[in-house]
UniProtKB/TrEMBL annotation:
UniProt keyword annotation of Signal present: yes
Protein name according to UniProt: ComEA family DNA-binding protein
Signal peptide: 1-18
GO molecular function terms noted in the UniProt entry: DNA binding
Record-linked SUPFAM superfamilies: RuvA domain 2-like
Keyword DNA-binding carried by entry: yes
Domain of life: Bacteria
High-level lineage: Bacteria, Pseudomonadati, Bacteroidota, Cytophagia, Cytophagales
Keyword annotations from UniProtKB, A to Z: DNA-binding, Signal
Source species: Ohtaekwangia kribbensis
């Protein structure tokens, strides 16, 4: 009977999936719109996208995926995850992804969203097969070569008379990446990158070997009691990310439920080109006994830092550098300037309903951290050692999933977060979260849910909701109330604020998707007085409005249109900004063409507009549209065969309000900036 049902499912829906399968670029456009719905926080979103894309580029085996791995996708509700796990327990392994239609709570829309991220493997394929045979015959693997160049010349390339600022390398940006993996079994690979202006050189004293940045990893999973082992570069996320979190800092956006809870996903290979987020060493997870697991890691690596001599004639770190740029003498002097040792341990107790653990983390620097004192950073970390200890508890009860974590800095303050995701009714989902971070709490690798960019000096309550009228129409929203007990950057007084969002998603047909969104954020900010050296403060309010349509005119042509508008009001003054975007995509079998034409007009930086741009595979472009002008790009993808693909991308921005772009060493003359990018991908 199960096989008969599967055949009926496949015959009824195979054509639908073939015509409307979500391609990679649409997937990441959805990520940009849903998971990062307000890209104006102090975060490096391109690095966040890059890291997330690397993880999602290797589909999970739906028969082996854990609840935390499914939760990490940010697509399935807690109810759907529970139903899928119960279905697997009762019926055994799924025979095809189409069998998901037999799982309670899974409709075609959900299955279409999750299909790019999952696969069903035949478990018999691994029986009596060596690791080398599985690598050779069954792995998802690729090799990427990427070349990028700005066609205008930055000031740093013209500063021959200024040795400290002159860029030593060529204007070319080069990247290579290789990875071979089988989810739940193994993964190994490497990444290497040279940014524009950096040298290709062999310098052991500066820890550079050819490319300026090289990353590598090897991973084994599910080998008896050894559940996970990563050697090389890795990242770790446990609990709610208060203490130990990777580069997954999703903000508040159009997806108001699933992004609230962090996934207790453990150790993962680090494959991003971001040069400041990796740990380097060894990480492992062992099954100690039934339901009890131990996870630990040790990392020893070099970090970029501004190291200088103090009054006591000892070297101190005045700032940690995260740009990853090493183009001139000033930047090279900060390259790998200090050592960092990072040690962590987690004892975990896990059953079908409960996941609890105790965490410890210690970070030691070669030099003492002593950042320049200002009004707002008097409680910032200082010294050579930071230690945190804490615990987390997650519990599922029927249609509600509770989650929490507490962490304490042994030489500072505490932080805790607690929340619940509740499938209140078949059409109603709710999320509630409370967080409280002391001003003296210090965690360098946290990614907990927060209004600010760090888990420090914040208290807040978030309430999110989602109502599904039917499978084509839903409305989502949230309200977040937050307070800051101490001063912050550009806010020289204790303050509070709020933020809310409402979004309507409508899919009238398989080929058409529409959404409209409004968001308001109110925060206090300093106001400079020309008659005094003292600051006063006032509350600023920012409104964002989005209207977007994605229409498939035919099987080969799609049109996307978007209007974004914002206004910012403070101290009896209001400024505005807008961008109008038209995208078009042609799919001609082996050749796919995507193009954009955008008009933007913003009064100031407070009204800058962020919009995701299609890019070559596993690359991201998220420029800030700021000022007045036109933004254009064209992207060509050609699939030579099943193994080789090529991409070419040209983009330019033409401003009408300036004769130079950028500042300092990144300044270019003229009102136009243009970029060219080539990429080749080879699958084995």
């Amino acid at each position: 009977m199960r096989y008969l049902l599967l055949m009926l499912f496949m015959s009824g829906t195979l054509l639908v999936f073939a015509q409307d399968a979500v391609d990679g670029e649409n997937v990441f456009q959805k990520i940009a719109d849903d998971l990062y719905g307000a890209q104006d926080l102090d975060l490096n979103y391109e690095d966040l996208y890059d890291n997330l894309a690397q993880l999602l580029a290797h589909p999970l085996d739906v028969n082996e995926a854990t609840d935390e791995e499914l939760r990490f996708l940010k697509i399935l509700s807690e109810e759907q995850i529970k139903n899928l796990l119960e279905y697997r327990l009762i019926n055994g392994y799924l025979l095809s992804v189409y069998e998901l239609q037999a799982v309670p709570g899974f409709d075609l829309v959900t299955i279409q969203k999750i299909t790019p991220y999952i696969q069903v493997r035949d478990p018999a394929s691994t029986i009596n097969r060596s690791l080398w045979q599985r690598v050779k015959d069954e792995s998802d693997n690729y090799f990427i070569m990427r070349y990028e160049r700005m066609l205008q010349t930055k000031a740093g390339f013209r500063s021959e008379t200024d040795a400290d600022n002159h860029f030593k390398g060529s204007p070319d940006k080069l990247s290579v990446r290789f990875r071979s993996s089988r989810p739940g079994d193994f993964s190994f690979g490497f990444s290497a990158e040279k940014d524009a202006g950096e040298q290709m050189t062999w310098n052991q004293s500066r820890h550079q070997y050819g490319f300026d940045y090289i990353s590598f990893h090897a991973q084994l999973q599910n080998k008896g009691r050894l559940k996970n082992l990563v050697i090389g570069d890795f990242q770790s996320q446990f609990g709610q990310g208060l203490m130990i979190g990777g580069i997954f800092g999703m903000g508040k956006g159009g997806e108001t439920i699933t992004t609230v809870r962090r996934s207790n996903i453990g150790h993962l290979p680090y494959t991003s080109f971001s040069e400041a987020g990796n740990l380097r060493g060894i990480a492992a997870t062992l099954e100690v006994s039934r339901n009890i697991y131990w996870s630990g890691f040790f990392s020893s690596t070099k970090r970029d830092a501004q190291v200088s001599d103090s009054i006591q004639e000892t070297s101190i770190i005045s700032s940690l550098i995260t740009t990853g740029l090493h183009r001139n003498e000033k930047e090279l002097a900060k390259r790998a300037a200090t050592g960092e040792q990072n040690l962590g341990s987690v004892i975990q107790y896990k059953t079908q309903r409960m996941d609890a653990g105790i965490l410890y983390n210690q970070i030691v620097y070669d030099h003492a951290v002593a950042k320049t004192a200002t009004r707002y950073n008097q409680f910032i970390f200082s010294g050579t050692r930071n230690e945190n200890i804490g615990s987390y508890l997650n519990y599922t009860l029927r249609n509600a999933a509770f989650f929490s974590e507490f962490s304490h800095s042994l030489h500072g303050g505490s932080a805790y977060v607690a929340g619940v995701l509740w499938n209140m009714a078949p059409r109603v989902d709710l999320a509630l979260l409370y967080r409280n971070f002391d001003r003296a709490y210090h965690a360098f690798y946290s990614n907990a849910f927060a209004e600010g960019s760090t888990t420090q000096n914040e208290r807040g309550t978030y309430w999110g909701w989602k109502y599904t009228f039917h499978r084509r129409l839903n409305v989502t929203g949230y309200i977040d109330l937050f307070q800051f007990a101490w001063l912050r950057y550009r806010i020289y007084t204790p303050s509070d604020g709020h933020e809310w969002l409402v979004r309507v998603n409508y899919q009238p047909s398989r080929k058409t998707t529409l959404f409209a969104q409004i968001r308001e954020e109110a925060k206090v900010r300093n106001i400079a007085s020309p008659a005094s050296t003292l600051y006063t403060t006032d509350r600023g309010r920012k409104y964002n409005y989005w209207i977007s349509s994605d229409i498939g005119a035919s099987d080969h042509v799609r049109f996307k249109t978007r209007l974004q508008f914002s206004s910012y009001s403070i101290h009896h003054q209001t400024t505005r900004g807008m961008v109008l975007i038209q995208d078009i995509r042609f799919n001609m079998r082996k050749l796919e063409v995507t193009a954009r034409y955008a008009l933007f007009d913003t009064d100031d930086y407070d009204n800058r507009q962020y919009v995701y741009e299609n890019d070559v595979w596993l690359a991201f472009s998220l420029p800030a549209y700021y000022g007045r002008g036109i933004r254009r790009y064209i992207l060509l993808e050609y699939k030579l065969n099943s193994y080789v693909s090529f991409w070419v991308r040209y983009a330019d921005t033409q401003y009408t309000d300036r004769d130079a772009i950028g500042s300092g060493v990144d300044k270019t003359d003229g009102s136009v900036r243009s970029d060219l990018k080539f990429q080749t991908r080879i699958k084995f």
